[in-house]
Amino acid sequence: MYPKNESQNDRIEEFGEYILSRTVKSVHRTYFLDVRATKGEDLFVSITESRKRQNPDGTQYYDRHKIVLYKEDIMRFCEEFGNIEKFLKENRPHYFEQNTNRETPSVKVAEEQPADKSELAFEDL
Q1: Going from the N-terminus, what domains does the chain have, and what CATH number goes with each?
Q2: How far apart are CA 95 and CA 93, in angstroms?
Q3: Residue whose C-alpha is closest to residue 22's, from 97, 99, 100, 122
């Protein structure tokens, strides 16, 4: 995704400084949920899906897809995500059960510490 000669600092400037980052790992995918700041100190959210893939020659690579939510869209996104959660809890409550006997492993949430050590809730955006 990034040219090999590009440094981490270049990526931070291009895509915004990391404020808060969370990782959700499942069997076949990893999701990165990041709150970042622009140079003008506005916050935005980026959601990245990463999947490990294999080339025909056997080498592996990561297929990534990114969605960026800007400040004017965050509240509507959260509202609709809440509506989806409500629908699923009413129609598929078993999706929310913590059952360790399932064949497929449950989704694990790994938390990363924010860069400035301050806690920022998604609702604060």
Answers
A1: 8-118 (3.10.450.700)
A2: 5
A3: 122
